[in-house]
């Protein structure tokens, strides 16, 4: 077959049908002949009313939408508000999931027929039914642009990830600004490498000194921030990459760390530096992720402790030599201080490049999973791995493989009808047909099968599944090449493409198998064998097949517990209920895991009840300590170590065409040396990209006092400007207003006197408890004095409330205060009372502290004057598609808006996550991005 047979050179253009071989024969996987997928599910009508968590205002409302009864409230809300097309309230507005799926699947069906993908019309119908069934049952999802655009009057943009190019000319730089703006306007993200721009240490042709790439980053950053604040539903997502041998590399490395130091100084001076604050716009470089592109030569120089040459952009000559180990330390120090820059390993990336004759891979999309040619795009889709886990605890690898092959077929069809934001991107994508199939719910799958995330068995299972996914994808790509032709750039890159396929197959042979992964691995081995044989005859239809994306919004659409390759966030999660309201439940993967591990139902029930109360498994009754690791999460009591995340990434990387969107979480106590170790091990283990996030390294979180840059960073070079801030004591006047409250806690009597500044604000407390001269009385006097001095030095009252409320010690129990009926200790009562008397409602709501009247009003507002307990029970049972809510899983406090906020209450500390710019809910990590559980907005790819 020649290269031109069956290929498409543009939208709607195809070779005559007679010139093509017979198309694909599509077999039924999930559907039954003569029965439409819609007839196999129970449908129901629901009202979608989404409010801003912070002020209660309604930001979206559509009533009477139609969804399967098995879909959760959250998935219903996300799909209705994000993906239904048409003006809200208009007759033409979509109101049923059937309409949405039909709109999208119909286009894929017609385009597949028009472009010769199917052997017969019956095969095309089976394809449409299978696609419909899998979308209906949340087996997989296309990325968001497909749902936004396909089948509408808008341009048929199907890609979420873009890579741009910029050269060393002013025209190219200005075009970069323009192209990024167009992509941001459409809600997508882009990345690019600035290394072609000459450094500030080089001369212009006119004789002047060049500005350097960092200076041009300012303009692009301002543009992204303006477009974001101009009404986009999420922050502009962008990636900026600079090669490690660029003469301005040190300036690039330090940009965000220096800005973070500036933020701290301005915040301490009283400026509003919160996310979205009035003064945050003065901070630069905050709208992009920064990454350094390191070479194998540089990493070997780091290991050897030798010098490394920085090269002029125009001539390639070395204009400066630097200590490689010192530069690497600078990268780690900056990442330790502010989480940027990440690292991309150029040698590994280009060693696995299928089309090197058409250009090097120099950049990535914003989340670092898509890596291919400049001016290209990637169309993503992700499978829900948990839907392939049977009731017997076995992963259905055969059905998984067939599903992958059908989804890859659909993804390739989309390029036939797709539109693109720029002509160069369209030309490259049509010529190389890059796809990005991936998955979500790996963390939930591992837990449900009794595997620890950081374990040999867990990594083996993940590697086998990923290998089967990519092997099946390229096998189908080779089959498609025999039907509609290989990608246009294949002939020039045939040798390189075949070499990379052999590397994937060889890596599959090296996978160490365990009982849970051996069957999957056998199928993967067969798939790679067929892939190589078929590809040798036909070539391949796609230059790239697989990536692991964050799966943010589409993860919510599929009701996934975990996103992408991530482990579970926590064991207790926030869940919305049918008819309104919310509750906290123990993740359903916990009882599945306990069953898999051999626990009896009554043992599992007791453990689940304990988890519901405590949020972790440590000391759970009857749970063997050797099983604790199965329930380790990204946050909480037991967290997965940083190298556990890195090892999981390394296990699956050899089986991906692209890379992995994931941030390696590190504790606040991690050192610069720890960051260096992670970045060095990432290179040795064959990763393509790596980013870290150290807890509390960003402003807006509590900062540790008394740490110098040298002591905490461990190096001689001061990367972060340290400004010593001395607090000033604001003394109370001689005469000040005060209020005394008498109280009893568990039968112990006492008095609380609170003195305030005349212009409002608590300034001192006195607590009388116990007889004068007693040890208890003396301790309370000293405690009161320390709290009073702290208040006068500016420590916020809410900080004390968050620290001392919920402390447990005797005396404890019933009180005589109607607003605080039960206290776990005297301090718990005192600070709840102080919060009620001296903090505004908004701050108390964040702390979960309400007066009796406020709680009564909340219940009445949520459930009516009379609470229908039976109705609530039925609502919960309707919501659950699996077992009913486990014992001990209680209703979440009304001030909680997401799983992250629920986890914060459990942990007693703030999580490093931004607030959603659409609804105000605290987002949760999703790969290297963030996801809002309230409205589905993301900070990156979805």
Automatic annotation (TrEMBL):
Gene3D superfamilies, per the entry: 3.20.70.20
Single Gene Ontology MF annotation: nucleotide binding
Keywords: Cobalamin, Cobalt, Disulfide bond, DNA synthesis, Nucleotide-binding, Oxidoreductase
Residue ranges constituting the Ribonucleotide reductase class II vitamin B12-dependent N-terminal domain according to the UniProt record: 48-138
Described purpose of this protein according to its UniProt entry: Catalyzes the reduction of ribonucleotides to deoxyribonucleotides. May function to provide a pool of deoxyribonucleotide precursors for DNA repair during oxygen limitation and/or for immediate growth after restoration of oxygen.
NCBIfam families: NrdJ_Z, PRK06556.1
Protein name in UniProt: Vitamin B12-dependent ribonucleotide reductase
Source organism (scientific name): Pseudonocardia petroleophila
Lineage, top ranks: Bacteria, Bacillati, Actinomycetota, Actinomycetes, Pseudonocardiales
């Amino acid at each position: 077959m020649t290269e031109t047979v069956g290929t498409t050179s543009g939208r709607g253009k195809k070779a005559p049908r007679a010139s093509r071989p017979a198309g694909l024969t599509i077999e039924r996987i999930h559907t039954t002949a003569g029965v439409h997928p819609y007839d196999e599910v129970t449908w129901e009508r629901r009202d979608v009313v989404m409010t801003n968590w912070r002020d209660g205002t309604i930001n979206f409302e559509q009533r009477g939408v139609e969804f399967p009864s098995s879909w959760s409230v959250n998935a219903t809300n996300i799909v209705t508000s994000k993906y239904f097309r048409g003006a809200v309230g208009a007759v033409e507005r979509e109101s049923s999931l059937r309409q949405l799926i039909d709109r999208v699947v119909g286009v894929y069906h017609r385009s597949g027929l028009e472009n010769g993908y199917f052997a017969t019309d019956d095969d095309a119908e089976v394809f449409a039914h299978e696609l419909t069934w899998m979308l209906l049952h949340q087996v997989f999802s296309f990325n968001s642009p497909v749902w936004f655009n396909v089948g509408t009057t808008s341009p048929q943009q199907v890609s979420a990830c873009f890579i741009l190019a910029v050269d060393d000319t002013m025209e190219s730089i200005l075009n970069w600004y323009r192209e990024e703006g167009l992509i941001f306007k459409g809600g997508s993200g882009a990345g690019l490498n600035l290394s072609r721009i000459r450094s500030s240490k080089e001369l212009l042709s006119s004789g002047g000194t060049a500005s350097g790439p960092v200076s041009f980053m300012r303009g692009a950053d301002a543009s992204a921030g303006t477009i974001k604040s101009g009404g986009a539903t999420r922050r502009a997502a962008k990636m900026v990459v600079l090669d490690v041998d660029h003469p301005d590399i040190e300036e690039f490395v330090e940009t965000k760390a220096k800005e973070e130091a500036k933020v701290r100084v301005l915040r301490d001076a009283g400026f509003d530096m919160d996310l979205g604050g009035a003064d945050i716009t003065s901070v630069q470089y905050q709208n992009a992720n920064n990454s350094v592109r390191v070479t194998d030569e540089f990493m070997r120089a780091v290991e050897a402790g030798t010098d490394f040459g920085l090269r002029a952009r125009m001539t390639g000559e070395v204009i400066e030599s630097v200590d490689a180990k010192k530069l690497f330390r600078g990268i780690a120090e900056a990442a330790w201080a502010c989480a940027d820059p990440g690292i991309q390993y150029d040698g590994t990336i280009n060693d696995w490049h299928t089309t090197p004759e058409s250009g090097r891979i120099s950049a990535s999309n914003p989340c670092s999973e898509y890596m291919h040619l400049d001016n290209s795009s990637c169309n993503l889709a992700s499978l829900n791995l948990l839907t392939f886990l049977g009731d017997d605890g076995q992963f259905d690898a055969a059905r998984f493989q067939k599903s992958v092959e059908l989804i890859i077929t659909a993804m390739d069809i989309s390029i036939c009808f797709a539109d693109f934001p720029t002509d160069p991107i369209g030309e490259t994508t049509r010529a190389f047909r890059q796809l990005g199939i991936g998955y979500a719910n790996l963390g939930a799958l591992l837990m449900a099968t009794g595997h620890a995330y950081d374990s040999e068995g867990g990594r083996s299972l993940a590697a086998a599944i990923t290998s089967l996914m990519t092997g099946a994808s390229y096998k189908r790509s080779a089959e498609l090449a025999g039907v509609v032709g290989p990608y246009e750039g294949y002939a020039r890159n045939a040798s390189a493409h075949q070499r990379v396929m052999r590397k994937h197959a060889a890596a599959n042979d090296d996978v160490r198998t365990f009982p849970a992964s051996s069957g999957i691995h056998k199928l993967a081995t067969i798939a790679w064998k067929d892939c190589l044989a078929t590809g040798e005859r036909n070539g391949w239809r796609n230059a790239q097949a697989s990536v692991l994306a964050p799966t943010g919004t589409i993860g919510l659409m599929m009701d996934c517990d975990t996103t992408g390759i991530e482990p579970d966030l926590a064991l207790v999660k926030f869940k919305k209920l049918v008819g309104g309201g919310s509750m906290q439940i123990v993740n359903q993967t916990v009882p599945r895991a306990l069953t898999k591990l051999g626990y009896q139902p009554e043992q599992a029930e007791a453990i689940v009840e304990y988890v519901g109360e405590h949020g972790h498994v440590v000391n759970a009754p009857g749970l063997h300590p050797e099983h604790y690791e199965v329930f380790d999460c990204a946050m909480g009591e037991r967290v997965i170590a940083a190298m556990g995340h890195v090892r999981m990434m390394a296990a699956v990387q050899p089986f991906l065409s692209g890379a992995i969107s994931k941030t390696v979480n590190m504790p606040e106590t991690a050192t610069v040396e720890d960051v260096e170790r992670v970045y060095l091990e990432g290179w040795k283990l064959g990763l393509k990209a790596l980013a870290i996030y150290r807890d509390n390294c960003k402003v807006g979180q509590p900062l540790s006092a008394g740490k110098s840059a040298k002591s905490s960073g461990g190096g001689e070079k001061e990367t972060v400007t340290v400004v010593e801030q001395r607090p000033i004591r604001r003394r109370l006047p001689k005469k000040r207003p005060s209020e005394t409250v008498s109280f009893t806690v568990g039968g112990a009597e006492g008095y609380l006197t609170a003195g305030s500044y005349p212009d409002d604000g608590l300034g001192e407390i006195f607590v009388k408890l116990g007889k004068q001269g007693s040890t208890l009385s003396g301790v309370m006097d000293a405690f009161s004095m320390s709290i009073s001095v702290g208040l006068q030095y500016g420590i916020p009252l809410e900080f004390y409330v968050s620290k001392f409320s919920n402390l447990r010690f005797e005396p404890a129990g019933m009180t005589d205060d109607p607003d605080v009926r039960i206290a776990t200790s005297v301090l718990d009562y005192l600070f709840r009372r102080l919060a009620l008397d001296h903090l505004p409602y908004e701050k108390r709501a964040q702390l979960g502290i309400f007066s009796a009247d406020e709680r009564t009003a909340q219940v009445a507002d949520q459930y009516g004057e009379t609470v229908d307990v039976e109705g609530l029970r039925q609502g919960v049972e309707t919501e659950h598609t699996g077992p009913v809510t486990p014992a001990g899983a209680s209703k979440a406090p009304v001030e909680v808006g997401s799983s992250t906020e629920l986890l914060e209450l459990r942990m007693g500390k703030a999580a490093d996550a931004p607030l959603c710019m659409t609804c105000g809910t605290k987002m949760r990590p999703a790969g290297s991005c963030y996801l809002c559980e309230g409205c589905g907005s993301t900070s990156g790819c979805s």
